[in-house]
Amino acid sequence: MTEKERASARKGSADTYPAGSPRNRWLPEGRRGPMPWIIAIIIFLTLLAGAAALGLAHALIQMRGELAGGYTIQVIEPNAERRAAQVARITAYLKTERTVRTVAVVPERQLREQIEPWIGTGTEPGELPIPALIDVDLEPGTQPGRIASIERTVTAIAPGARVDAHERYLAPVEQLMRTLMWLAAALVAMMTAVTAAVVMLVARSSYETHRATIDVIHLLGATDLQIARLFQRRIALDVLFGALIGTAAAVSVLWFMGRSLAATGADMAMMISVPWRLTPLLLAIPILSLLLAATTARITVKRALERTL
Hints:
- The chain has helices spanning about 5-15, 35-65, 80-95, 110-120, 145-155, 165-170, 170-210, 210-220, 225-265, 265-270, 280-309, and strands at about 70-75, 100-105, 130-140, 160-165.
- By secondary structure, the protein is of the alpha+beta class.
- The protein folds into 2 domains: about 10-65 and about 170-309, no CATH class; about 75-160, Alpha-Beta Plaits (2-Layer Sandwich), CATH 3.30.70.
- α7 packs parallel to α11 and α9 (about 225-265) packs antiparallel against α11.
- It is elongated and about 100 Å long.
């Protein structure tokens, strides 16, 4: 057969049996195999990891915004009258400081209610002296030198006073959350690589299984691109089926976890929840996985055909 006749045969085969034709569906239905269910598990775990990364990132941003510039002044003085006088002088000074946004003295009754589980009830105010607490919010961007000057003035008014920064207080928690966030992001990247590896293995296995059929189709005039499209279409449908199952399962779990976090009423728990504006990033994971699988299948089969022919 001359080159002209081969080209004519290929053209006739492509016109008579297009890649999407039922005649060319000689690849087995993937839903009967393990691949869609493996993809479903991978997508499920990827979405959970992605939600954890986004939730922790959102919590870190909120925590940073709420804790920035926050300080607590603890006035330690056994004598109630002197303690009250020191608190009044510190409060008056802070209200005149231009870098201070808000000043609030925590009521003693509220402090006693918080420590009741440890000291019990029935104690008189004079029996157990409780340090006075003053919550202070500084303006954003306050220079460290100015903060040090405020601390010196406070300790000059009340020698036993302690100034604690909220950021310093929760620094270990913030570091832990940041580590978990990057770990979740790394898991998303690993799961994406696993998806490509699974598709590559399935494409190679299916190619070797149908090697004889592929040779016959080649003799009939089919091109490498047409054969690669057959594999691409079949694997893309299998991945789509698995992605839908995995996404549905992940959405159900995330919805249940969101309701559980809301039921706790804890501020920290609500910070970790994924806001609605970030949900498109999660929904992009199965879409990108589908595109990755289709591209990987096509490239794998084309390279296998080039090595064979």
